[in-house]
Write a structure and sequence with these properties.
The complex is a heterodimer of chains A (about 400) and B (about 170). Chain A has about 400 residues and is of the alpha+beta class. Chain A is built from eight helices and 15 strands. Helix content of chain A is about 15%, strand content about 25%. In chain A, the strands form three sheets. Chain A has a seven-stranded mixed β-sheet with strand order 3-5-1-12-9-10-11, with helices on both faces. In chain A, strands 7-15-14-13-8 form a five-stranded mixed β-sheet, sandwiched between helices. Chain B has five helices and five strands. The complex binds FE2/S2 (inorganic) cluster (2 copies).
Amino acid sequence: MTLEPIPDKRKAVVVPDVDPEAKWRPYREPLPAGEHPHRPAEGFKLLGKRVPLIDGPSKVSGQAVYTDDIQLPNMLVAKMLHSTRPHARIKAIDATDARNLAGVVDVLTGLELDPTRKFGVLPLTKDEEPLALEKVRFIGDYVAIVAAEDEWTAKEAVRLLKVTYEDLPSYLKPSEGLKPVPEKIHPDIGIDQSNVQKHVDQEFGRPDEAFRAADYSVRRKWKFQGVTHAFTEPHCVIAHYTAAGRLVVWSATQVPHYVHRALAEVTGLPMHRIQVIRPQVGGGFGGKSDPFPFEMATALLAMRTRRPVKLLFDREHSFYSGRGRHPTENEFALAMDRQGNIKALEIEAVIDGGAFASFGIISTYYNGVLSMGPYKVPNFRYRAAASTRTASPRGPCAGTAP
Amino acid sequence: MNKILKLTVNGVAREVAAPDNAILLDVLRESCRLTGTKRGCDMGTCGCCTVLIDGENRLSCLTLAAQAAGKEITTVEALGTPNRLHPIQAAFSEIGGSQCGFCTPGFIMTTKALLDRNPDPDDKEIREAISGNLCRCTGYIKIIDAVKVAAKELAPEPARPTPPIAAPARRAK
Ligand code: FES
Ligand code: FES
């Protein structure tokens, strides 16, 4: 990488690239105890020792119970109709054929929901709906849910649902949302007429002066394309509204308490009548830490049918729903002195939050706060905008920062 | 239309009513209630659903139940219970080759097939053998360690020379 000298002191420095001779080694022999910094030789009870998981034996013997392993008596199978449009108004949903199919017990659409009962993981940004109320905001958005006696009937019923959409402009780049837009993704959220959900400005020291006084500086732009967790267990939820008037929900979630709170908001039940059980979870890495619309929709369906209902996503919809790390457009500038000390860091970032806020506000702050890594940075400026986009929602992925 | 399928699962002969196009994974999980075999992707990409069919590791989500009729099907439940783990299971548990555990039954069955045909695999052979199984938690290093430990554990004891039997010491009266 070549550094760009600031105009008055023309001196370019070439920073050597990573040693091309260094071999990439996919597998390392475990270092013997005593040679590895984290495995001291002797004298510790736990440090340097393998500590098997207490639930290891149940997992390796196939006895650990994950959500999809639970089978309740008289349980219905639910399937979701997902949006095929990135941004569209729902004009009508015709569920006649689906309802008339033998074996179909119930069909629920957003048109039947209370529009005031929204939820979201952060109390500040409750912008999610159990099922799309009037418009869909990403391909894969939740339009309707069907409960049937078996999986094939449920799938067939979903196929029979007819949705009339009116397409709205879609925003596929995060930066598109910064300007005023013809149709906001969330009409009541977002700064002015844009899709920007949050602006963050952080500054300390005197970054401008530091850049002027620096011996070298470099400025680069790049894009981070976003990643998904790809946990091995797809999303799964079971809901049961018992005869005693208790809503019991088993979900492959990382945070049952968020689900508990959101269920109370959506169903209107007091919290003591809701129980959320988290069985073994097959990986989450952040992707199962939001309360999800499909968890709410399954619970509502269970309350309507008064039978246990199970919803299991296939891999495709787990990808649509799993809230991977935010794609980001970054511009970084770094000022250094001749000894290689960092003098200032300036960052501008546009963070793509996808269709819903999720943990977006936190991610917007963390993106700046964590950008210094372990270095001492005396002067710092960070400006970021988190923008919604008509694409899969984004959230924490092995942490909360992009 | 359902038909009666005759399957041998973990040594037990079973008769299961299933349609012609029933998938082995569904039959194992739903009809036999053997939920140790996991459904990770349902399309042959993750390896979570690996079982042994006549000793060979197979993806049960890509196998018709009818194809397995009359054959010996082995799932993770057949190897051991938490109090009497099979050496492969014990190695995965103790070495940390299993974290969330969702991929684990698949890895264990793949390992079983590998060690049955090659009791002393080297690194490359292990990596090749588990290349069809995805794990998102462990980063594979501990899984490879676990396979090695299991291989060592399962290796037949080297024949040792029999120690001469010492004459019992006479007790002084
Ligand atoms: S479930 Fe069979 S390979 Fe993933
Ligand atoms: S232990 Fe979680 S995916 Fe392998």
